[in-house]
Design a protein that fits this description.
- This protein is of the alpha+beta class.
- It has a single domain, classed as Roll (2,3-Dihydroxybiphenyl 1,2-Dioxygenase, domain 1), CATH 3.10.180.10.
- The protein has 6 helices and 16 strands.
- The strands form 2 sheets. The chain has an 8-stranded mixed beta sheet with strand order 2-3-4-1-13-16-15-14.
- Strand 6 and strand 7 form a beta hairpin.
- The site of zinc ion has 6 residues, from strand 1 and strand 13.
Length: 325
Amino acid sequence: MQPIQGLHHITALARNPQTNVNFYHNVLGQRLVKTTVNFDDPGTYHFYYGDKVGTPGSIMTFFPWPMAARGVRGNGEVGASAYSIDAGSVDFWRNHLASNGVTVGQPETRFGYDVISFEDPDGMALELIVKDGPATYQFWEDGPIPAEHALRAFHGVTLWLAEAERTGALLTEQMGYELVGQEGNRWRFKGASDDIGLYVDILVDPKRPAGRMGAGSVHHIAFRTRDDSEQLEYQQQLAQAGLGVTPVRDRQYFRSIYFRSPGGVLFEIATDAPGFAIDEPVETLGQSLKLPAWYEPRRREIEAILPPFTIKPVEKVRQAEVINE
Ligand code: ZN
């Protein structure tokens, strides 16, 4: 059986859709590659951000719900989501975030690499982590960030758990991950390929209370399989291992199965295909509301419920200006 290829996407909860777009699209320079609705609740948007085309391993998605209460981070949840950056981009990002009013945490190194910590407008923990090696993402030329500093898709996630053993065993025995390091109470697992979104860290603290899901919480993380037959093999294997795995669900841009990991975090396994260009051209990704065929007859009703937002034009950030501040 083929090992998991790394992360496919991370899905989180937010409040204000406009605030969410302004931050991810205009500040972090992650292209809004799809504007659609929550297929299980079509009165709520589902935003997908990623690189130019939404390459699996770069996709951050949100359900923005203006009435949502703020979540409380704790055990059984994703404690932080991380993008990769080049070693030469640390000062750029510290300056760029600060100049956009984002509070940046104290300089930190982890497994020998620089880490920048901050929160999104809903309090979700984000990190930028320096990573060597290849990153097969597609640079978004029309975004605000110059090519040399653009985020290079996901580095990985940190799971906050009361104990590492059971979720660690799931990763290594069922999903093809390898334990590659330990630093204090942090255990690092790495996916089998040499690409993007490879790392799952488990940060153990048995005394930390359980998290409470809300705005600023990660709802689930999705891992990549290359095709449907590989996904079905995983479905069978996970079911045999006693994990309550769902039937395959059609998410329009990929197909998904879901199961709850032993530590409490909701896992998904998603296919790379068909991707975001299935219902609109790459040039105009994300600019208009896309609905799956089964919701098209209800378009007018759905559009009337969704709060309006605008995609503001991006302003190119020039390195010289930032560094001279
Ligand atoms: Zn998902």
